[in-house]
Write a structure and sequence with these properties.
13% strand; alpha+beta; 5 strands; 6 helices; five-stranded antiparallel beta sheet; 2 domains
Length: 199
């Protein structure tokens, strides 16, 4: 997932929630802190529904053992238990994280994407830096370095996300972000370094 295009529900499951939240935090910083809180609240609420139904059935049924009231109480308990089971199948606790991820989706149109070539030692850090800049690095791999730059042995592609400002010169922005982070490499065949960047 760390080098894949950000797609809604791409790997968003309960088992991958922690990894998905860590990836979202690279884009969003701690602005997404509310996502796990909201997810936990939704999950707890669903599991509490049968309990609420049980308590409600006791109160509605009362102590006079009136058949109608007891029947209504039992129906309430069964309805809330059934609703809880049905809703749990749809995994609604993933919705807050899913909703926030939409901001960082890519369009799928790779015509606006740029290839980046850099050192393998800078690979993970470069991807994190780009995500913090609201860009989506993906399709990473090791590559034979070019003859004139033997240390540049890793590459990935960078695409804009929905959060990328319209009209951004993506090639220039990638070079600026990476060079500002002290990373040397090439984007679209143009070299950038921690001191200077050029196109």
């Amino acid at each position: 997932m760390s080098s894949g295009l950000v797609k809604r529900l791409n790997a968003l499951t309960l088992n991958r929630y922690r990894d998905s939240f860590a990836l979202l935090r690279e884009f969003d910083g701690w602005h997404c802190w509310w996502c796990p809180v909201a997810s936990a609240t939704i999950l707890a609420g669903l599991y509490l529904l049968p309990v609420v139904g049980g308590v409600a059935s006791v109160y509605v049924g009362g102590s006079d053992r009136d058949l109608l009231r007891v029947t209504i109480g039992v129906c309430i308990a069964l309805a809330l238990a059934g609703l809880s089971t049905r809703l749990l199948r749809y995994e609604p606790w993933l919705a807050p994280l899913d909703w926030r991820f939409r901001r960082y989706e890519t369009s799928g149109d790779l015509s606006e994407s740029w290839p980046v070539l850099l050192q393998g030692s800078d690979y993970e850090r470069a991807q994190s830096v780009l995500r913090r800049a609201r860009l989506s690095p993906h399709s990473g791999r090791r590559t034979p370095p070019p003859p004139d730059a033997p240390k540049l042995d890793s590459t990935f592609t960078v695409s804009p996300t929905r959060a990328t400002p319209t009209g951004t010169d993506l090639c220039t922005e990638i070079a600026r972000v990476l060079s500002s982070a002290g990373i040397h490499g090439r984007v679209g065949g143009h070299e950038f370094s921690p001191q200077t960047e050029s196109r």
